[in-house]
Amino acid sequence: MTDPDNGGLVGVWLIGARGSVATTAITGAAALRDRIVAPAGCVTESPEFPDSGLPEFAQLVFGGHDVAETPLRKRAEQLEHAGLLPRGLPELVSADLSAADSRILPGIADSEQHHDRQELVAELVRDLRSFRQTHGLARVVVVNLSDTEAPHPERAEHSDLRSLRRALREQRQEKVLAPSSLYACAALLANCSYADFTPSTGARLPALDELARRNGVPYAGSDGKTGETLVKSALLPMFSSRALHIRSWSGTNLLGGGDGRNLSDPTNVTSKTSSKHRVVDESLGYPVDGRVHIDYVPDLGESKTAWDHISFAGFLGNGMTMQFTWQGRDSALAAPLVLDLARLLSRAHERGHRGALRELGFFFKDPVGLDEHRLPAQFEMLRSFARELGKDE
Questions:
Q1: Which residues contact 228 (CB under 8 A, 6 or more apart)?
Q2: Which terms does the record give in the GO molecular function aspect (predicted)?
């Protein structure tokens, strides 16, 4: 890891900066810096990732965009009351929360109602450049943690940079880009690396991939792999290697909190369920029956329960089943991965990587540029990439 005196400060700009995941990440980074907590869940802090040249937690400077107005300190206290943050931790890092909160700017409330999308992107670019200049940052990483959007088709007019610029200029309703893609576009134009932690369209447009490569900026995504799908990607290689044919795989997810509320909208939930089920079909190489259901249960608060039922065929056609239950708190599972991605993307940008980083597929349900979903293979790819990042230039 780099010396904070030599590596420079790294900005971490969070879209949805006052949400549960962002608040947990900001609070956790300060606690890790001060060695108040152990780095449980931080992949890049494990012994598998020595000397990768990643920025230290003390080098991270947080800011972001959000439409919410609840101060970070208040949000952290709410998470403390819900049992997600350790008792007393928000008080211990209150100065860090206040500092980060002062760097949060109003986000995109509704891009479809904005009359000049080109100016909207330009304003987002100015916010990012001002953040970098004001705080003397060597690099900035933008991470999208906002609410999941309804599926946004990748239209032909967004297939190259020229058509993308035309879509931004025109005011025709059918050419509106998703807010996540506007944020991604602004990040790449401002020379910031970018990560899609949601299943929203984001940078997954051919024109934005072209922009990233042209500007020499790396990006990664999409849809952070934190719970049920993490278990799936670990179990699937077991069935494949034992030549056990999976007949069906169905799951039910019970969610509380803001994520559950957002996904209770049937137009939004499709993006999430599609990325969840794609892991199974693409890992096995054949279609599997079954669906993933997501239900909003307010009483669960910040917790999540997932139950899966797997039917498979063994020797001589014997039918068998497996079931598992996953219970956890998504924000506590996601936050350390957000910190991992910020550190890895910053270092990758420093080392000259550009375009989609398939090597970071380990972190995502629907990894851009990568068809490999088996967790051990993804982890080995990530380890090799981290070793490369740590090599002397």
A1: 251, 253, 276, 306, 308, 326
A2: inositol-3-phosphate synthase activity
